[in-house]
Design goal:
Nucleoside Triphosphate Pyrophosphohydrolase; alpha+beta; DNA mismatch repair protein MutT; about 130 residues; 7 strands; hydrolase activity; about 15% helix; single chain
């Protein structure tokens, strides 16, 4: 499978918002919230929509953080994954997709849960406040 996925690097009070995935790719890994880009949708609109659907919050995008070649040969997955630094402008995060997400939480950058998804690792490497 090949596709375009988007992620949001949301920092608040020096903590990063992460979700624990239930589904492939990278089942039971901690990840930045996000999802797939729909046909004829911009990456910016996609991440705003995905975060609203997944966590019931509205975000604003600050900047493009990085683009990851999310290639997982063992899972036959290849996504191009732009990640944006974003801020919550409305709402409190809650798990709106319990069929897809096991948990959500805020974590200090020096005390992150494991395992992390590839795109989350790459975003952390690129992040400089």
């Amino acid at each position: 499978m090949i596709g375009v996925g988007v992620g949001a690097f949301i920092i608040q009070d020096d903590k990063l918002l992460l979700v624990k995935r239930k589904k492939a790719p990278e089942s039971f890994h901690w990840s930045l919230p996000g999802g797939k880009v729909d046909f004829m949708e911009t990456i910016e609109d996609a991440i705003i929509r995905e975060i609203k659907e997944e966590l019931a919050i509205t975000i604003t995008l600050e900047r493009l953080l990085c683009v990851t070649n999310h290639i997982l040969p063992d899972e036959q997955i290849h996504f191009v994954a732009p990640t944006f630094v974003a801020h919550i402008c409305c709402g409190q995060p809650k798990n709106q997709e319990p069929h897809a997400l096991e948990a959500i939480g805020w974590y200090a950058l020096n005390d992150l849960p494991e395992p992390l998804t590839l795109t989350t690792i790459k975003a952390l490497e690129a992040y400089h406040p």
